[in-house]
């Protein structure tokens, strides 16, 4: 196993807390988590090291489908998805294995959880699935919590801060594939800014 200390200098330079995450199993896993951490810093719905209890309190009065991402309190994992459901707020573990992220599933479920190289992409996928499932009048994915089978619906993020005008414009651009296909002629600083966060949420 690769200890945190092996990446100590890099961790400090990127703003990681030495005690925030579990031990990385490899440099590839470190780079995966660091890339996700950078995206989460930009997204506005990452609440870092708040507890599950604090997340439940914050989402208690929010509409169903409101969600946030926080650091996992379980040292075996990196991140947790907290989402308000009709049955209350649920904390869903984000698994990390083979350098991909995916949601924890019920061992008896036949569903295969899709995998992603970034937690923000995972969130985007399930938000898109919700829209498609509503169009088809069916639920596309369930989570399992406290023995309950609960539909996973990600509707709107619970923001930790107001987004800048630049970031709002970037999200709009990211939501239009036809625009992204014609960015070659953009100035390098703008292309770099778009690349730093490539999600529409």
TrEMBL record:
Biological process, per Gene Ontology: intracellular signal transduction; negative regulation of signal transduction; phosphatidylinositol phosphate biosynthetic process; protein ubiquitination
One Pfam family from the record: SH2
InterPro entries per UniProt: SH2, SH2_dom_sf, SOCS_box, SOCS_box-like_dom_sf
Domain SH2, residue spans: 45-128
GO molecular function, a single term: 1-phosphatidylinositol-3-kinase regulator activity
Taxonomic placement: Eukaryota, Metazoa, Chordata, Craniata, Vertebrata
Pathway(s) it belongs to: Protein modification; protein ubiquitination
Keywords, comma-separated and alphabetical: Growth regulation, SH2 domain, Signal transduction inhibitor, Ubl conjugation pathway
GO cellular component: a single term: phosphatidylinositol 3-kinase complex
Name of the molecule in the record: Wingless-type suppressor of cytokine signaling
Residue ranges occupied by any SOCS box domain in the UniProt entry: 151-200
PANTHER family named in the record: PHOSPHATIDYLINOSITOL 3-KINASE REGULATORY SUBUNIT, SUPPRESSOR OF CYTOKINE SIGNALING 3
């Amino acid at each position: 196993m690769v200890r945190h200390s092996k990446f100590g200098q890099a961790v400090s330079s990127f703003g990681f807390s030495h005690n925030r995450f579990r031990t990385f199993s490899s440099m590839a896993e470190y780079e995966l988590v660091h890339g996700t951490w950078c995206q989460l810093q930009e997204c506005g719905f990452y609440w870092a090291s708040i507890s599950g209890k604090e997340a439940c309190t914050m989402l208690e009065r929010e509409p169903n489908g409101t969600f946030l991402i926080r650091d996992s309190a379980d040292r075996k994992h990196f991140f947790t998805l907290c989402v308000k459901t009709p049955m209350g707020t649920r904390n869903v573990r984000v698994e990390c294995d083979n350098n991909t992220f995916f949601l924890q599933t019920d061992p008896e479920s036949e569903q295969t959880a899709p995998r992603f190289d970034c937690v923000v992409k995972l969130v985007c996928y399930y938000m898109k699935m919700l829209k498609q499932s509503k169009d088809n009048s069916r639920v596309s994915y369930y989570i399992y919590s406290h023995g309950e089978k609960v539909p996973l619906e990600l509707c709107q993020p619970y923001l930790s801060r107001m987004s800048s005008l630049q970031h709002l414009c970037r999200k709009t651009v990211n939501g239009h594939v036809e625009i992204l296909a014609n960015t070659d002629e953009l100035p390098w600083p703008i292309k770099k800014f778009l690349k730093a966060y490539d999600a529409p949420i």
